[in-house]
Amino acid sequence: MSNEIQFYSVGDDFGEFSNFALFPIKLDGKTWPTSEHYFQAAKYVDKSDQETVRKANSPALAARLGRDRKIKLRKDWESAKVGVMRKAVLAKFSQHQKLKDLLLSTGDLKIVEHTDNDSYWGDGGNGKGKNMLGKILMEVRNEIRDQA
């Protein structure tokens, strides 16, 4: 499909679009190893829980910690998560020129997180998922382009 860009694994073409890609971001007065670390930590109320996630030695571990339901989730997480993801993605692509250039190089192509593991952030593997991460990437691309 040449009318869309699909990404998932960090090692693939456009793998930089993955939240697991190793591009640190500065947000809320701290440096986060990846946008995944920031997103997962934002699920929690307790600052020490957030710090545990921020200090996780890999984005995969940050994601695992973020799925730990023994830790108290913030009450508004379901309504806040898209905004949190957008904030992280905007920071990532604003703070790294290489990423900004890569994102802008996609023009007006549709960006899709192609995975059967996730039908909310991704396309569900069959194109029927919500592709929320892809949609956020396209919004951020438009915002960065408009600022240029």
Please tell me about this protein's structure.
The protein is mainly alpha-helical and 148 residues long. It has a single domain, classed as Tetracycline Repressor, domain 2, CATH 1.10.357.40. It has helices at residues 35-41, 47-54, 59-66, 77-95, 97-104, 132-147; strands at 4-7, 25-27, 30-32, 110-113. Strands 1-4 form a two-stranded parallel sheet. A hairpin with a 2-residue loop joins strand 2 (25-27) and strand 3 (30-32). Helix 1 packs antiparallel against helix 2 (47-54) and helix 1 (35-41) runs antiparallel to helix 4 (77-95). The longest helix has 19 residues, at 77-95. The model has no long low-confidence stretch (mean pLDDT 96).
Summarize the structure.
With 148 residues, the protein is mainly alpha-helical.
Layout of helices and strands, plus pairs?
Blueprint: E1 4-7, E2 25-27, E3 30-32, H1 35-41, H2 47-54, H3 59-66, H4 77-95, H5 97-104, E4 110-113, H6 132-147
Parallel strand pairs: 1-4
Antiparallel strand pairs: 2-3
Helix pairs in contact: 1-2, 1-3, 1-4, 4-5, 4-6
CATH superfamily: YbiA-like
The shape is globular
| Average of per-residue pLDDT values | 96
DSSP strand content: 5-15%
What is the helix fraction of residues, given as a range?
40-55%
CATH level 1 class label: Mainly Alpha
Number of domains: 1
Keywords:
148 residues; mainly alpha; Tetracycline Repressor, domain 2; two-stranded parallel ribbon; two-stranded antiparallel sheet; 6 helices; 45% helix; 9% strand
